[in-house]
Amino acid sequence: MGPAAHRAGVDRLLASYHAIPPSATVRLAKKTSNLFRARAATNAPGLDVSGLTGVISVDPEARTADVAGMCTYEDLVDATLPYGLAPLVVPQLKTITLGGAVTGLGIESTSFRNGLPHESTLEIDVLTGSGEIVTATPDGDHADLYYGFPNSYGTLGYSTRLRIRLEPVKPFVALRHLRFDRIEDLQSTMDEIARTHTHDGIAVDYLDGVVFTATESYLTLGTQTDEPGPVSDYTGQDIYYRSIQHESVNHPKTDRLTIHDYLWRWDTDWFWCSRAFGAQDPRIRRWWPKRYRRSSFYWKLIGLDQKYDIGDRLEKRKGLPPRERVVQDVEVPIERTADFVHWFLREIPIEPIWLCPLRLREPAPVGAAPNRPWPLYPLEPKRTYVNVGFWSSVPIVPGGSDGAANRLIERTVTEFDGHKSLYSDAYYAQDEFTALYGGERYDELKQKYDPTSRLLDLYSKAVQRK
User: E-assigned strands of 381-439?
Assistant: First the structure.
């Protein structure tokens, strides 16, 4: 978009901020979202971010990009791949924005070696709650905001520009799908790869996994390559997650994708969630327009369901109880992963589930706290965690309350020394939430960067859904 267009977009943002009455809560005015928690309806005007949706510049020599806060990863990848470069972490869904991934925590199959998106951010321009734009860097005047911004979900401010690191990528990714009959074996193999970045003498650049049942799970190992050859296509009739499955524990199944198609391998079917709309039925899929086989369109269908209770009405016509939405990503230490997965499969009737290992990057940025550098989501350095993702619904037990399954998951994750992402429904009591997500450190940042509470606080936004 260029610096001039970006400056004009920032000017419109500031004008919209000052047009909002001082007594009104400041919100974004945006048409799309990857959040799954309900938000209160409002007719109040929001911040105009329409001019903050592009890539400002790419520096292929320095391997950096300046990116507007509302730029989607789809547009960012389109701008960097021609240079043979990609962001260090590319979240799975095309319409996730860079600013959203930093303030709301993104993750993907490079996270075992590159950490989370905010760790490859060099500097952030933030419109704070006080209406001031400040530049936050690891060792500058606003280093506290740099480290406190991740997991703040717009409650300390909104990013207008981010400078990020890029890494070289090759044109293709060679895949090995390893099958396991025991979750414990998958856990030990994942742990070793996360530490060594190799398996059977071959470098591993990408690593994630899928659990179908307690006796059928897979790790997918991706290795970049520039060797030409045939590649698979999972944007048409074939479905990526089904391609992972095979019978042999001793012989991995292999595959190849272009780097572009690998980065977006999950988006076509929203992992496996497109099956809820019939999009995986071959009879329907054949006629489903290709441009609508993407996460952003499925999200619109979810929005219609939430607005009109379509799913519960259909369940009622079948004589079935309403369902509770269980759409969550949690992190547990890798040594507790098998135990957590077994518990989950026993207690929560959802499958498949996604596994993605992560480790904080080393070394940590200059100025980081030595033990837990990112205070609002305090993972420990030099420790491997596993993101466990599950996205579906479960029947509400007769006489039970909506939210029972989610509350049970929250309690169990805490017992396993884990954390839960806040992009979806949360039910924590305020004192427990405060202890888990920043405590006094968050309060200090809130007072400094939003002293008049123009923005919602984190508990109100993530749990109370005001």
Answer: 385-395, 419-420
What pLDDT shows up at residue 331?
A: 97
Rounded Cα–Cα distance for residues 130 and 156 (Å): 9
**Helical ranges in 269-403 per DSSP H:** 282-285, 295-308, 310-317, 337-347
Mean pLDDT of 356-383: 85
Closest CA to 114 of 366, 378, 361: 361
DSSP, collapsed to helix, strand or coil, labels residue 61 as coil
Cα–Cα distance between 462 and 152 in angstroms, integer? 10
pLDDT classification of 316: cutoffs 50, 70, 90: low
Q: 453: how many CB neighbours lie within 10 A of its CB?
A: 14
Asked whether 279 and 14 are in contact (CB, 8 A), the reply is no
Largest Cα separation within the chain, whole Å, is 65
Single-letter amino acid, residue 287: W
* 107 token code pair: 């993750």
Instruction: Sort strands 172-180 and 419-420 into parallel, antiparallel or unpaired.
Output: unpaired
Determine the residue type at 138.
P
The two structure tokens encoding residue 301 = 């269908």
What is the predicted pLDDT for the residue at 364?
75
What is the phi/psi pair of residue 259, to 5°? -60, -40
DSSP state of 421: -
Assign domain 2-169+455-464 to a CATH class.
alpha beta
Helical ranges in 215-330 per DSSP H? 240-243, 259-263, 282-285, 295-308, 310-317
- State the DSSP code for 23: T
- Tokens standing for 234? 């999972």
Closest residue by Cα to residue 13 from 27, 31, 1, 2: 27
Q: What is the Cα–Cα distance from 90 to 241, expressed in whole angstroms?
A: 18
Structure tokens at 347: 């207690």
The Cα angle at residue 78 between residues 74 and 79, in degrees rounded to 5: 120
The pLDDT confidence band at residue 312, using thresholds 50, 70 and 90, is low
Q: What's the rounded Cα separation, in Å, for the pair 108 and 252?
A: 22
Contact 178, 245 (CB under 8 A): no
- The answer to whether 65 touches 163, Cβ cutoff 8 Å, is yes
Q: Taking the domains of the chain in order of start, what are their residue ranges?
A: 2-169+455-464, 172-265
Q: Sorting pLDDT into bands at 50, 70 and 90, what band is 26?
A: confident
pLDDT of residue 1 exceeding 90? no
381 in Cβ contact with 331 (< 8 Å): no
- Residue among 168, 166, 172, 264 nearest 224 (CA): 172
The amino acid present at 121, given as its one-letter code, is T
User: CA-to-CA distance for 107 and 267, rounded, in angstroms?
Assistant: 14
